[in-house]
Structure formats: structure tokens, C-alpha cells
């Protein structure tokens, strides 16, 4: 095998790894499903309400399935494995490279998504006026179901 073929194989492998690292999604900057403002007609500083905690649950962050990492890793591993050996040895090296690359690509994607979308504790509060409001916490909240709480703007107090 010539040096040019080896260089081309290594270049393709490095390019595949660079593309795999670009597959990572946008970082999670908090809950965007809930409005940040208070109810219309009330200023956030002066609006207070009392309520009862109706639910405390751990909400798992959605992770990716790892398909992209597996596919890109498998292709890169197959290309690199194909550069090794000759005849049936080349075929075996290609298969082993593809399987190994798929496993490594999946692990890389899983690890790159580990810090994104951290799990949150969601506390649901039934307000005395009949409305329901939810609050997300990064750490376990100091409330239980049935606790009376005060909602001030977008904050929850015991």
C-alpha cells in the first residue's frame, strides 16, 4: 500500500471524527416551555399568590439516540480498516474497523451529549385562584406534595 493511500485513509478518518463532533446539538440553557413573565396586568414585584404543591417529579433530559455517531463512526472505521491488509485479511479488517468505529462513534456522541439538558425537578403548584404553575429546579427542591407555598412573580417560597 502506498503512502498516498494511507494518507488518504487517515485524512478521511480525521474528517469523519471532525464531522462527528459537529453533530452535537445546542446546549440546554433552561426551560423554555414556560413564560418568564407574570400574569397580564400585574407587576412581577407586587403579584403574590398562595397555593399547594400538587406534584414533584424528576424530568429526564432528552438525549440523542446515537444513530449519527454510530453511522459516522462505522463508516470511518470501515474506511480505515480497509486500508489494512490484503485479500480476506482486508475484508476482516474492514468489518472489524466498521464495528469498532460504530461503537466508538456511539460512545463519543453519548459523552458529548452528557452535559447537555441536565435533569430537572419539576414542581407543580395549584394556586388558590385555580391556576396551575410549574417551576423547574436543578437540585432537589425542599418541598413535598401537599406543602403550602407562596408564589411571588416567578419564584416559589415555602
Residue share in helix: 25-40%
Structure annotation, total helices = 3
Report the major sheet: 5 strands, antiparallel
Order of helices and strands: HEHHEEEE
- The strand order across the widest sheet is 3-2-1-4-5
Q: What does the oligomeric state look like here?
A: single chain
Q: Which of globular, elongated, flat, extended, rod-shaped describes the shape?
A: rod-shaped
Secondary-structure content class: alpha+beta
Tell me the total number of β-strands: 5
Q: N-to-C terminal Cα separation, in Å?
A: 72 Å
Low-confidence runs of at least 5 consecutive residues: 26-46
The overall pLDDT, averaged over residues, is 76
Radius of gyration: 26 Å
Structure write-up:
The chain contains three helices and five strands. The protein has 158 residues and is α+β, with helices and mostly antiparallel strands. A five-stranded antiparallel β-sheet has the order 3-2-1-4-5, with no helix packed on it. A hairpin with a 2-residue loop joins strand 4 and strand 5. Helix 1 (3-21) runs antiparallel to helix 2 (67-82) and helix 2 (67-82) runs antiparallel to helix 3. It is rod-shaped.
Briefly, what is this?
With 158 residues, the protein is an alpha+beta fold. The chain has helices at residues 3-21, 67-82, 88-112, and strands at 48-59, 120-127, 132-137, 148-152, 155-157. It contains three helices and five strands.
Fill in the keyword field for this structure:
158 residues; alpha+beta; 5 strands
Amino acid at each position: 500500500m502506498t503512502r498516498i493511500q494511507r494518507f488518504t485513509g487517515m485524512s478521511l478518518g480525521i474528517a469523519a471524527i471532525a464531522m462527528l463532533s459537529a453533530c452535537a446539538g445546542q446546549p440546554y440553557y433552561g426551560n423554555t416551555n414556560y413564560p418568564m413573565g407574570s400574569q397580564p396586568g400585574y407587576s412581577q414585584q407586587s403579584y403574590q399568590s398562595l397555593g399547594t404543591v400538587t406534584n414533584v417529579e424528576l424530568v429526564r433530559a432528552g438525549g440523542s439516540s446515537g444513530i449519527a455517531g454510530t453511522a459516522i463512526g462505522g463508516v470511518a472505521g470501515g474506511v480505515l480498516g480497509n486500508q489494512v491488509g490484503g485479500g480476506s485479511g482486508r475484508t476482516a479488517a474492514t468489518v472489524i474497523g466498521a464495528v469498532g468505529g460504530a461503537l466508538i462513534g456511539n460512545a463519543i456522541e453519548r459523552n458529548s451529549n452528557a452535559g447537555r439538558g441536565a435533569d430537572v425537578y419539576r414542581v407543580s403548584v395549584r394556586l388558590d385562584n385555580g391556576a396551575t404553575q410549574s417551576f423547574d429546579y436543578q437540585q432537589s427542591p425542599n418541598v413535598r406534595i401537599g406543602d403550602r407555598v407562596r408564589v411571588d412573580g416567578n419564584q416559589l417560597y415555602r
